[in-house]
Write a structure and sequence with these properties.
Elements (H helix, E strand, L loop, with lengths): L1 H9 L1 H23 L1 E5 L14 E6 L11 E5 L13 E8 L4 E4 L5 E3 L2 E2 L21 E4 L4 E5 L17 E2 L3 E10 L5 E2 L2
Antiparallel strand pairs: 1-2, 2-11, 3-4, 3-11, 4-9, 5-6, 5-8, 6-7, 9-10, 11-12
């Protein structure tokens, strides 16, 4: 047994390549499982902030107290789509309403949080106030204590809380928070 250990110790290939590879692989697996989450964006609901095909680097959410209005969050929501075939997808939307807040959406798309108009520099494509979409909800939403309210930045083309049967996303459905974009390389960096 002692001779076998000496042979392993003397084997430079194992020391220089195999052991570091196993260590790095183990660290990457732990980080992927518990810290980082990768998402590819398939829809235009967040344009121009996030384009179709962008790849985002996100971190899992463990502390809900760190979430704030304006964060871009990845979540699951079985009830989030009014289209049955889309009901099992992950969503990427902007956090608008926190627990116990009152959100009011006007016909022209203006959003108020607890009576204060929300300044949304990230919304470039607002709804047309003459467009009466029977599926789009407007009015007041009271966010439950264990839930959040999400809208897409591309308000003219986003299947978000305004269209969902239940407009709220609950804590157990939240997955991760977007940290930065890594693809395309020309847009590499923090996403706001």
């Amino acid at each position: 047994m002692k001779n076998k250990l000496l042979k392993l110790k003397d084997n430079k290939f194992i020391q220089d390549w195999i052991i570091p590879f196993v260590i790095v692989g183990t660290i990457c697996l732990i980080l992927k499982s518990f810290v980082f989450y990768n998402i590819n964006v398939p829809t235009p609901s967040m344009v121009p902030t996030v384009e179709i095909g962008n790849k985002m680097f996100t971190t899992y959410i463990y502390n809900f107290d760190n979430l704030k209005r304006g964060d871009i969050i990845v979540f699951n929501n079985d009830d989030a789509s009014y289209e049955k075939e889309n009901s099992d997808k992950e969503y990427l939307k902007r956090l608008i309403g926190l627990p116990n807040e009152e959100i009011r959406i006007e016909k022209d798309g203006t959003v108020y949080v607890d009576g204060i108009k929300l300044e949304e520099y990230y919304v470039k494509y607002q709804v047309d106030s003459n467009d009466i979409d029977p599926l789009r909800k407007i009015g007041t939403f009271k966010v439950p204590e264990d839930a959040y309210f999400f809208l897409g930045d591309n308000r003219a083309n986003s299947g978000d809380a305004r269209y969902w049967r239940d407009p709220y996303v609950y804590k157990n459905e939240l997955i991760s928070k977007v940290r930065f974009r890594f693809w395309p390389l020309s847009k590499f960096g923090k996403v706001e």
